[in-house]
Amino acid sequence: MASGDIRSIVDWLVDGARSTMQAHQVLAELCDRLVSCGIPLWRVAVFVRTLHPHIMARRFVWRPGADVEIRDAPFELLETAEFRGSPVAQISASGMPVRRRLADPDCPIDFTLLEELRDEGVSDYLASPLLFTDGEVHLATWTTRQPGGFTDAQIGGIESIVAPLARVAEIRALRRTASNLLDTYVGNNAGERILAGQIRRGHTEAIYAAIWLSDMRGFTLLADRVPPQALVELLNEYFDCQVPTILKHGGEVLKFMGDGLLAIFPIGSDSDPEEVCARALGAAYEARGNVAALSQPTRSEIDVVRFGLALHIGKVLYGNIGGGNRLDFTCIGPAVNFAARLEKLAAKLGRVIVASSEFARHCGADFQPLGKFPLAGFATEQTIFGAADEANSTVSITTDILTEN
């Protein structure tokens, strides 16, 4: 094993491993380079904690001749005996490396993983802490099937690349964390725009989109009757009825407003408005069914969970709005205001899904006209449409209760 070859790997890592774009590609190229240097690797794994609402960490596993395997570790893993008795837990707590020469007859088998590795013919195991600059301890493990295990020179070669590998892993992890947080709090498309540098206040773009605005019925009264923690749990379940299906159908959730939700389905220059509206309506039908299923006999405080949903289509201003250094990436404009008025009208009409004429004309027989109604802030009465399969649910109405102040 030539020290100059190892030095070239160190230099590559110090330079940021810029020949690769993704984290798994870094590991693949690193291992290939180490093998080319004469280090007979069999299985290499990197375990990096992340900041994500559902994922505690990501694990990357390399084997010769195979694609790098990526596994997400849920938070529940932390509570298992398997994790508490793993090298990951020990090294995360101590920050010290662990080596087990499995080829030695008297090698302690103090981790369950070691039994599995020895059954695979592994002769040596090294677990190296990856020390991040914020004090966090992550992990890389290295194994070989070479008879007798790693030589001292091979161990030295691996140890020489651990520190620069930690720097590369930290940089990639920080960018992924930023992407995760933006995706979680502002949505995927908005997050990508922010990461791309669109962060100046007033930086907006006019886009054409189908608009989704929904609201839970009777939430204010419910908040007075239900204990706070139970109310939070209900809201989370309620939003779970909508958010996954919005994302599945190509929409983007922009904002939660108490029990309200604002989402858009962008319509690009190469998009078919009819196809986009069909996706939005498909999400609406699915969300309606999910909310209906949410009402369970076991809920003592809640009889029925109900919601209303308005669908509209139009131009919106999409971008940064706020004061000082506190900005919100959202959309505004008359089309959003119209959707908000329309959603309020849905409750008075006894409807779950209502739509503007602009939206309904793209959906054929899925909607039926309900009549013309005044909407606050709009000079003329507007023709409102309701989902055709809710035709028998309309309650009697009068013009005076429909006029909003």
Explained architecture:
The chain is of the alpha+beta class and 405 residues long. The protein has two domains: 3-185, GAF domain (Beta-Lactamase, 2-Layer Sandwich); 188-402, Nucleotide cyclase, GGDEF domain (Alpha-Beta Plaits, 2-Layer Sandwich), CATH 3.30.70. Helix content is 40%, strand content 26%. It is built from 14 helices and 14 strands. The strands form two sheets. Strands 7, 8, 9, 10, 11, 12, 13 and 14 form an eight-stranded mixed sheet that branches. α1 runs parallel beside α6 (152-185) and α6 crosses α7 (188-195). The longest helix has 34 residues, at 152-185. The chain is elongated. The protein starts with a helix and ends with a helix. Mean pLDDT is 87; it is low at 394-405.
Short description:
The chain is of the alpha+beta class and 405 residues long.
SS field, number of helical segments: 14
- H/E topology pattern: HHEEEHHEHEEHHEHHHEEHEEHEHEEH
Can you tell me the CATH class of the largest domain? Alpha Beta
Mean pLDDT across all residues, rounded?
A: 87
Biggest sheet record:
8 strands, mixed
Q: Considering DSSP H and I runs of 4 or more, what fraction of the residues is helical?
A: 25-40%
Total number of domains: 2
